[in-house]
Design goal:
Helix 1 crosses helix 2 and helix 6 runs antiparallel to helix 7. The protein contains 7 helices and no strands. The protein is mainly α.
């Protein structure tokens, strides 16, 4: 395996860990509101943070939590209920996915959807991953028309 391929795989894994930690941080933010800056500090000490892309984790948490009301409003057209009625895990996954689809064109939409589904499978309700898949697919069709 080439060094470039190995480096790309390591970077992908580091981002996946960053997403997982961001879901956990945003879950905590929903159930125990507080300044998003506290999340960055709190999760800096997480056991898996050395395996994560710290800058990406910070960007995800800050990008979503700094203007959560805006992201909830942007999520509205793609969901069938109020954001406050969503399961907190699925809500966090959807906010991260919507943020990535909107603000991170460097991340292919298929990666956003696959990562979101995987996180919902791991942490969400039994069939929550199906809902996450449907919502992120609708959002990607709208936000990434040129890519979809």
């Amino acid at each position: 395996m080439s060094r470039a391929l190995t480096a790309a795989r390591v970077a992908t894994n580091r981002r996946a860990v960053a997403r997982r930690l961001a879901v956990q941080a945003l879950y905590r933010w929903q159930v125990n509101a507080g300044p998003w800056q506290d999340l960055l500090q709190e999760f800096a000490a997480a056991d898996d943070m050395p395996k994560a892309d710290r800058e990406y984790f910070d960007a995800l948490v800050r990008g979503v939590a700094e203007d959560g009301v805006r992201w909830d409003a942007a999520l509205g057209p793609y969901i069938d209920r109020a954001p406050s009625e969503l399961d907190p895990v699925e809500h966090a996954v959807l906010l991260i996915g919507l943020y990535e689809l909107s603000a991170r064109p460097d991340v292919p939409y298929r990666v956003v959807i696959n990562e979101g589904v995987g996180l919902a499978r791991r942490f969400g309700a039994t069939d929550g991953h199906k809902y996450v898949n449907a919502v992120l697919d609708r959002a990607a069709r709208d936000l990434r028309r040129d890519e979809h």
